[in-house]
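Hi there,

I know you've been waiting on this one. I reran it after we fixed the sequence typo, so this is the corrected version. Both the input and the resulting structure follow.
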Amino acid sequence: MKRDLRQSQRGWRDTRGAFGRPGPRARCNLSRRAFTLIELLVVISIIAILMGILLPSLNRARKQAQKIACQSNLRQMGIALQTYLPDFEYRLPPSSCHIDEPNDHWLRVLTRYTKEQLLFHCPSDKGKKFVNWDRPLGEQKEARYSSFAVNALLDPIHYRYGTRSNRYNSVNNIRRPMSCIWISEAPDTESFRLADHIHPETWEGSVDYAKRFIAWDRHQGTSHYLFADGHAEGLRFEQTYEYPGVCNWYPEAAPKWPENP
């Protein structure tokens, strides 16, 4: 009995150590103690809060980067356009309405006038199926030409300005090229499969109807536009088209409305 008591006292001294502090064995046991359920829940809650704070900021940064990339694409098109125009008597390249050869398409034509490959897909465009220009277009009827579309009022031929030729196809005849939109962002809809142009003359002053043909909110309520003088801007659609008010779509009147809208 006494021997057991002495062994018990020795064990207690080993555990307590000098001056009543935890000995090596106690410290070893403490170091092996696992997290409690409450501690784990606290850690998970902190991580969830941090994620809730960071994710919106990261999402905004991603959208801003996509917006900048899209505007850069249009600016490159503007640079190519300014190089193209002097070679063709300042006449704008045609839309698909007036060509049979795919390589004469305005998208392809402008590509030849820049040292870099033009990017016709906006990073914010959710569409995935775009034309492969190395294959016949007739085999790609479900595809889209681009994230962008040209203003048909500036085509070589348009019924509004006569059946033979459109004088406003020449930048020199546009009232104010810096105020007249040539390219806008096209929506990801079935109507824009193998289509590359829009008809503002059919909108009849209705903003709601016009928005069906423009990706007006692709960049947080704004969209990008390339004007006939080659500069690009990010604008709300109502800043380009609202009756009565501003209208940047009719070459004979922009930035005003024509006499018979």
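Quick highlight: The chain has a mean pLDDT of 82.

Best,
R. S.
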